[in-house]
Amino acid sequence: MLHELRSGAQAIRGRQLVGVYLDGALAIGGFEPDRSDIDFVMVTEGEYSVSVNAPNARASEHLLA
What we know:
Elements: H1 2-13, E1 17-23, H2 24-28, E2 39-44, H3 50-64
């Protein structure tokens, strides 16, 4: 799943993508499939704006649906 998320982000942000990192329960071993959500952080270089981030948000919603 993380590989797919990173690949999607790489396709959208290209060289601006620094990395995609797991956070929260899944990262520290407390993940419960019936209760937990999946938290991740995308680190990018360059200017941030809602219009720049919109494709990332759509891609993550699609991959995690």
